[in-house]
Amino acid sequence: QLHLVESGGGLVQPGGSLRLSCTGSGYIVDHYAIGWFRQAPGKERERISCISSGGGDTDYAASVKGRFTVSRDNDRNTGYLQMNNLKPEDTAVYYCAASPERLKGCGGSFGSWGQGTQVTVSS
C-alpha cells in the first residue's frame, strides 16, 4: 500500500505563496501519477492538478491555472504543488493522491490518499 503524507499548509495572506509537499512511502512513487485535490467547507472535492509519473504531463483546473505549478522529484519520492497569488477562495483542505501510471495515471482512479493539509488564505 502506497502511503502519502502532505505537508506545507498554513495561514497566508492574499497574494502570498505556499508550497505543498506530498511524500510517498511503502511503494515506488515513480510508478504513480500524483493528483492534487482540495475541499472547502460545504463544497465538493475539486481536482486541481495532476502530474504524470515521469513528470512530462500536467494538467490544471481553470480555477488555479497560471497561479499553481505542479512538479515532482522521484528521487525524493515527493510531489509538490507551488501555489502563488493565493486568494481567499483557495482556502480548503488540500489532498494529494496517487493513481498507477499503468492504469491511466492522471486519467485513472486515485486509490491512495494523504491525510490532507489545511490552507487558509486570509488577511
Would you give an account of this structure?
With 123 residues, the protein is an all-beta fold. Helices cover 0% and strands 50% of the residues. The strands form 2 sheets. Strands 2, 4, 5, 6, 9, 10 and 11 form a 7-stranded mixed β-sheet that branches. It has a 4-stranded antiparallel β-sheet with strand order 1-3-8-7, with no helix packed on it. It is globular.
Helical stretch count?
0
Radius of gyration: 13 Å
Provide the structure class.
Answer: mainly beta
Question: What oligomeric assembly is this protein in?
Answer: single chain
Q: Identify low-pLDDT runs.
A: none
Our estimate of the beta-strand percent is over 45%
Strands, count: 11
- Rounded average pLDDT: 95
Q: Quick one: biggest sheet?
A: 7 strands, mixed
Shape: globular
Distance between the termini: 40 Å
Question: What is the N-to-C order of secondary-structure elements (H for helix, E for strand)?
Answer: EEEEEEEEEEE
Estimated helix fraction: under 10%
Topology:
Elements: E1 3-7, E2 10-12, E3 18-25, E4 32-39, E5 46-51, E6 58-60, E7 68-73, E8 78-83, E9 92-100, E10 112-113, E11 117-121
Parallel strand pairs: 2-11
Antiparallel strand pairs: 1-3, 3-8, 4-5, 4-9, 5-6, 7-8, 9-10, 9-11
